[in-house]
Amino acid sequence: MLKKVTKEDVPQISAAIMQSLMQMLHNSCNSAPGTGSGVQEDALLAVSALIEKLGSDFIQYMSSFHPYLLQTLKNTAEYQVNNNRGGVKPLLTDLKSAERLDTVSVLRQ
Fold first, then answer.
1. How far apart are CA 88 and CA 73, in angstroms?
2. Sign (positive or negative) of CA dihedral 36, 41, 75, 66
3. Would you list the domain boundaries of the chain?
4. pLDDT digits over 74-106, tens only?
5. Measured at the alpha carbon of residue 43, what is the angle toward residues 59 and 9, in degrees to the nearest 5?
6. How many CB atoms lie within 10 A of CB 66?
7. Torsion angle, CA of 89/92/98/103, rounded to 10 degrees?
8. CA dihedral defined by 76, 79, 85, 88, rounded to 10 degrees?
9. What is the pTM of this model?
10. Residue in 25, 5, 26 with CA at minimum distance from that of residue 14
11. Residues 6+ apart with CB under 8 A from 102
């Protein structure tokens, strides 16, 4: 859905979108092992689409998104999320591609 939103409109709705996506990630990270992978994958796909639209402006969300990203990376029970086409790897690629967004520095925080 975010891929159809214009770049001009994304800044107006990005805060509400990120709040909802982080709530989804929070709930799925705290669910029983093996039950949250679909939700995590969908949320990460949406975050990835938001990064594509916002570019370097996504940095405003990194401090609050960072814990969920790390939790997803550490979550071995949700292995398919980390290795799926729609999981963490494409998200990290999008983060790195976002103009002036230093992924390595962000992940070290």
1. 7
2. negative
3. 2-108
4. 765 454 544 544 455 566 666 666 655 555 455
5. 55
6. 13
7. -160
8. -10
9. 0.71
10. 5
11. none
- Which is it for the CA torsion 86, 17, 29, 32, positive or negative? negative
Helix, strand, coil % (nearest 5) of the chain?
80, 0, 20
- Written as one letter, the residue type at 44 is L
**Residue 19: in which H helix or E strand, if any?**
helix 10-29
CA–CA dist 101, 75 (Å, integer): 24
> What are 38-76's pLDDT values in tens digits?
777 788 888 888 988 898 898 899 889 888 888 777 765
The token pair at 36 is: 């949250």
HSE-CB at 106 with a 13 A cutoff on CA atoms is: 22
In the three-class reduction of DSSP (H, G, I as helix; E, B as strand; rest coil), residue 31 is classed as: coil
